[in-house]
Write a structure and sequence with these properties.
The radius of gyration is 29 Å and the shape is globular. It has an eight-stranded parallel sheet with strand order 30-28-27-26-25-36-33-32, with helices on one face. A six-stranded antiparallel sheet has the order 3-2-4-10-7-8, with no helix packed on it. Strands 37, 40, 41, 43, 46 and 48 form a six-stranded mixed sheet that branches. The chain has 750 residues and is mainly beta. Helix 1 packs parallel to helix 2. The protein is built from seven helices and 48 strands. The two termini are 50 Å apart. The chain folds into four domains: 193 residues, Galactose-binding domain-like (Jelly Rolls), CATH 2.60.120; 91 residues, Sandwich (Immunoglobulin-like), CATH 2.60.40; 268 residues, TIM Barrel, CATH 3.20.20.80; 146 residues, Galactose-binding domain-like (Jelly Rolls, Sandwich), CATH 2.60.120.260.
Length: 750
Amino acid sequence: MNTTRTISITLIFAITLGGIAMAQWKPVEGQLMTRWAKDVSPGNVWPEYPRPQMTRDQWQNLNGLWDYAITPSTADSRPAAWEGQILVPFAIESALSGVKKAVQPDQTLWYRRTFPAPGNLDGQRLLLHFNAVDWECAVFVNGTFCGRHQGGYDPFYFDITGALVPQGDQELVVAVWDPSDKGYQPRGKQILEPQGIWYTAVTGIWQSVWLEPVPRAHIRNLALTPDIDKGVLRLSATVDGAAPGDEIVAVALDGAAPVAGSAGQPGAPFEIPIENAKLWSPDSPFLYNLTVSLTRGGQTLDEVQSYFGMRKIAVAKDDRGINRLFLNNQVLFQLGPLDQGWWPDGLYTAPTDEALRYDVETTRAMGFNMARKHVKIEPLRWYYHCDRLGLLVWQDMPSGDAYIGHNDPDIERTAQSAHNYYRELGELVRDFGNHPSIIMWVPFNEGWGQFQTNEVTAWLKQLDPSRLVNQTSGWADRGGSDVYDKHSYPGPDMFPIQDHRASVLGEFGGLGWPVEGHLWWDKRNWGYRTYQDREALAGHYEQLIRRLRYLIHDGLAAAVYTQTTDVEGEVNGLMTYDRELVKLGVDWLNTVNSAVYLPPPELITLAPTSRDDGQTWRYTTDDPGQGWEQPGVDDAAWKEGPGVLGKKDTPGANVRTEWLTPAIWARREFTIETVPQGPCFLEILHDEDAEIYINGVLAATVKGHNGAYEQIPLSGEARAALKPGANLFAVHCTQTEGGQSIDVGLVAEK
């Protein structure tokens, strides 16, 4: 599988930088740079073949220095003068572009470069490829309009053969308009004024630009669908310039050794038998090589190299009748980070392919088998690395248009917005659907742009029946998904199991640690819960993973931790934004995370919480004085009410008894038959600081608020204080601002 080769087109092209002086470029000093930035130069910028799953020997890379200018969008013609040079394929807002300027929605960004005359094409066509341009672009070659494209994430090309001139340099001009957050288009987390979970806007060319000569009749794209149950690979090849009698010939290879072959007609699906297939999985990401040829009268007109993985993803019931995620007909719990794919020096664009690969390699090394690619689509090479390294991918559709709340109806998009959404989603499936690593599509995230939800889901399932669809990650569920997806911060938590779909945790965690020397901003750094050192962060992360194991027993099928890296002011990454530090250590994370793939433990309830049924507490908001936590204290004058105690509408709290003062003292008896032999844990919901006692002995101290029940190991002293028969919880909770709640239960491993 030769997917990384870069072969110059010496027979047709002479590689050139179009007379642009490389020495003039340097990155703009940014708030933060990665170690790979030093490897970036105009003569060495993303030299890798951009399309790993459909390669040809001849191509020319057009990455490097281009001229640029910014004009008012009202100007219809190209700029009279160029403002400077920009390093393609880095967005103009990035440090690595060498420019670092913002482009407004009422402006047009222009690019220009030259390349040498191709000489005698000998009947071939010359294709100009753009792997991604954000958002709308118009392309001109030698003053001839070659085409227009809308969409910030999908690859596209134009046949520029007719625009070429016989002699001298060829001029390429690209005009780009991007409405950013002022438009309806899919844009993900981009915003003109970044803050919180919204990041710096990206405009223009942000993936590779390249030339490719092809025969007049040539393969345009491939569609590859494995079927492990039948033992075949289904293949369809779209051909431009096909004639009656043309044939598609496909050969599957194990390394260089052919293992199977078949033939069919252009545009018509056919099958390649793969006997005793080596299956693709995170533990064994085996990839077959694939040669596909277009033949006419026994002569090969065109040939491309590709690869595929034999794997199957499905929702099915386990031996307890619970819906789980099955890979290759076996239950596989999926644990991964929310991966947003941002870089401090390149923004949407990784500095190098090595940097792009590093994120995937490190994710696997940390003990994750999956990543949710969050409201962004990556370059094709990122998915190639996932294919090769065995990382499952949940792929989001980038969000755009308007929001809805948890219980709101779908939005009404304009006809233009709806048409654009369907077109871009369809192109995502078409252009990325051959990657075995992608096992789930996520069309909507947290109600953003959500419209025609069940219609979109049905259309997507028809378009790609080989993958799962997570229609609404987070909220605004419409019931038509393969999974029931909950977001819980810090969590973890899950929706109740259902008969027709699996319960997954699409986001949880978000534990932040702002590491000095690795921050995008000096201030405004945040996490869903923030710590000041590694030890505190590690302790809570370990609690989350331990809680996951109990939820897995209850039916949880997958979980997504927020997030792979810090992004700008959001410091809840497992890695710093510059990738210099894995905050908890790769080996430590691998050890902790690996526990989720073991058989899950079962919890037994010793003292229930008030999550489902309100447990009766006696409480006071007046300081009861010393010894209030001890058994035998007369609390007959205290008030009585069912938990949860707190303020109505506090996140994660089913408040049944209002508590609105700065402090509360509460007591509750519970009875156990025997003291368990295994580990015991408090189940605590708190907002804010609390001390919990059992039989007068301090069991745990917690700080801040958690927003969902979490397990805290019982102290050794408190565990020793447990006894058969009647026991006593005593809780003191204080609150300063916002919501407030307190509730406690006790569980043990069976």
